[in-house]
Structures are given as structure tokens and as C-alpha cells.
Amino acid sequence: MGSKIKLLDRPLKTFILYALLVLCLSVPAYFLVIDHIWLSELDEHNEVTKNELLYSFKKSNYTEDELSKTLTLYNKLQPSNTITKSAISVAKPDSTYTKLSLNKFSVKEDYNRFRVLETHFLIHGQPYQATIQTNFEETDETLIAISLVTTLFFGLLVFGFILLNKNISKKIWQPFQDTLYRLKHFDLNNKQEIEFIPTEIKEFEQLHVELIKLMKRNVLVYEQQKIFLENASHELQTPLAVLKSKTDSLLQTDQLTKQQLEIINEMNIPLSRASRINKNLLLLAKIGNQSFEDDEIIDLQHL
Fold first, then answer.
1. 8 Å CB contact between 23 and 150
2. pLDDT tens across 249-272, in order?
3. CA distance 214 to 212
4. Contact present, 233 and 284 (Cβ < 8 Å)
């Protein structure tokens, strides 16, 4: 037989597996949610930047030469954002997308994700295109940090559940252990009624009630069987002894024919067998009633 699992350990094992599955599913869920939040925030940031640019240029009274110098200076100071003349005279709707670009300010060659907003507008009646880019934060590092924290709390949660399971198991199942101990030491020959420790758990109380009913019925049936066995053995002993005596008396007479002697001998054999069976039944009844006070250990292998 394989190793047995305790009753409370089985649902705990299932719960831990379920929690582990939820933990594994939570990592991509974190990534998708955080990525969506950042995209929304970056789009909002780019939209605000666009509105500020449009407001600044609409309120300005730059000449053509001043506007050209201002745009050149702006493109130098804001390398991630550019404002250039557009070849499209018809205004296009804004477009938003994500792209990978080399981080110019990184020590090593590193490509980062950028959220880009392209918009078209007019300055002094001339079409211009503005490209606004915002670098993503380190999504992978944030995700790893969140995953580590989640795993840590998951481990604490599982460890706490195991401790609570042991304490709850020891406390709640104590009446059951006591009931099991009393059942193991219950003896049908002992007429003393078994008493279970009262408990606040309804199911255990119902179990105690049904066990008491069951044991009372078993004790009653056992006593009736013992009485019937004793009475039957004693009642059979007398007629068997009489029959045995009568057959022995017939065998001692001289007027019997050979055929009659054979018939009496054939009758004597089952009578002797029935007498031995009856004696064995009486012996079993005495053993069952513990009529023999002296106990002795016998080495059957030696015998």
C-alpha cells in the first residue's frame, strides 16, 4: 500500500497548486495591465506636450527667420521631439504608435521602447509635422520587482497556511482522535458503556450518537449469541449423553444380531462426533466469556 495522506492535507495540497497556478498567471497579467497603464499615461503626456506646443506657436509672433531659428534650437534641445515642415498640405489625423530606438545617452548600446505621437498643424499658414517621443520606463525591471514581491508574499501565504492547517488539524480533530482511541480499546466482553468526550462540532456529535447506537446493538446481539450458544450447548449435552449411554448399553447385550451391532456402531460414530462438537462449542463459549483466568504465552513454533 502507498503512503496515506491526511484528510486536511489533501485540500491544502490542492489549494497550494491552485495558488501556484494563479501566481504563474498573474505575471503576464501584471505585464499587460502595467503596460496598458503606462501606454495610457504616455499618450496623455504626449497629448499635453502637443497642446503646449500648439498653444505656444499660435500665440507667438515670430518672423520666418525667427521661427526657423526657434525650430532649429528646439530640435537640438529636444532630440526626442522634432518639428519639421510637412510636405502634406492637407491636415492628417494624429497617429500614435510604439517603436524601438537606440538610447543615445546610454553607456552601452541599448534599445528602448518609445511612445510616439505624430501630429500635423499650421504655423503662419505653413504645414508642419511634430513628432513627440517619450521613453518607456524600465518595464522589465518593474515587472521582475513586482513578481519577486508577489512570490515572497505567496511563500509567506503558503507557509502560514501550512502552520494554520497543522494547528487547526490538531485542535479540531482532537475529539476524533479521542473517539478513535476509545474505539480501538473497546471490548465487547466489557459491559461498560463507552463515553465520548463532548465536542462543539456538530458532525462529531452526530458521529458519537450513531456510534453509541451501533455499539449498543452489537453488544446486545453479542450477548444474545453467547446466551444462545451456551443454552444450545447445554441443551444438546444431555440428550447426546443419554443417546450415547443407551447405545453403549445395547452393545453390552448378548441378544443382538450381527446386523443390529453394525447399525448400533454406525449410530455411535455420529453420536461421538456430535458430542465432540458440543464440547468444542462449550469450550468456545467459556473462552468467549473469559472463564479461564490464567493466561499463558505458548511458543507454537517450538511446539
1. yes
2. 777 777 777 787 778 778 878 878
3. 5
4. no
